[in-house]
Design brief:
The chain is built from 8 helices and 4 strands. It is of the alpha+beta class.
Length: about 180
């Protein structure tokens, strides 16, 4: 079976269960915690991917890591994944579950890249404006990239608005190279 089909199937099943039991917010927080562990701990990923470590040992380690931190239903879901020998797909399942949850709750992810640090009040205003414009809740992340020189780059889901000075200079240069003297 295709890896993406596996991750989508498990994510949809858990998402349906979360909606049915009206635990979507709690389980979203649980899966976000698992995703954070996956992205921050190389050792955890190595554990999941290791063919040498037995499934029973993986299940015991996952239980000891998450037992007091997440809901029992979330823990049982992770243990089911391990029992079915699909533990290498946990990061993908988490990512797909979070995507389904964002769509259901009308949450859009945005990344604002600027040349210098932006203060919290400006970020709050940007978040509010985007929320009103898109009629959605916005998860805004700010990044600093001095290479854009000035202006901003706003990435919203799979779209990007580039109003950076570096891009404008590149466009001017290209126009000048294309014009004949």
């Amino acid at each position: 079976m295709d890896q993406s089909a596996i991750t989508v199937r498990y994510a949809k099943a858990f998402f349906s269960t979360a909606k049915e039991k009206k635990l979507l917010d709690k389980l979203k927080a649980d899966i976000q915690l698992v995703m954070d562990v996956c992205t921050s701990s190389e050792d955890f990923i190595l554990l999941l991917e290791s063919p040498i470590v037995k499934s029973s040992k993986k299940a015991a380690l996952i239980k000891s890591i998450f037992e007091s931190k997440i809901e029992e239903i979330s823990l049982n879901f992770l243990l089911l994944i391990v029992q079915n020998k699909r533990e290498v797909h946990i990061p993908g399942i988490c990512r797909n579950f979070l995507d389904l949850t964002r769509k259901d709750l009308n949450i859009k992810s945005a990344v604002l890249t600027t040349a210098s640090e932006v203060d919290a009040s400006t970020l709050k205003k940007v978040k509010e404006l985007l929320g009103k414009e898109l009629n959605a809740t916005i998860e805004l992340t700010a990044q600093v990239n001095p290479e854009i020189l000035g202006g901003l780059v706003l990435r919203l889901d799979d779209k990007q608005y580039d109003a950076s000075v570096a891009t404008q200079l590149r466009k001017v240069k290209q126009t000048l190279l294309e014009t004949e003297l």
